[in-house]
Amino acid sequence: MKPDNKKAKILMEGVTTITPEMIKKANREMARRYTGRSEYSLKGVKNAVCPACENASMDYAENLVFDITLAGMGMVISNLSGIRCRKCAEISFDAKSIKIIDKYMMV
Ligand SMILES: [Zn+2]
After folding, report:
1. Predicted confidence (pLDDT) per residue in 5-18, tens digit
2. Which residues span the domain enclosing 74?
């Protein structure tokens, strides 16, 4: 009689085994959620709360400009969409614009 072995077997049966299939499924689920979020558009947004000045004064705009200086080289990307604060000019780009900016940054 080996009671210890029997106990161990019962414990094993009670544990949910995480299979590679389960991990794959979870990864797919995460990817789908991420994709869904990245397609989110800010179009039509009005009076959103500004993260910088905390006024409800951010509106959707399609004429936003992103400019940055990298290694001494200036870069300007215009006609980006997102939201802009009327009070402090804080800008939040939407997913589409972030993709465009990312593309330029990787060059
Ligand atoms: Zn602001």
Report:
1. 565 555 555 556 77
2. 42-105
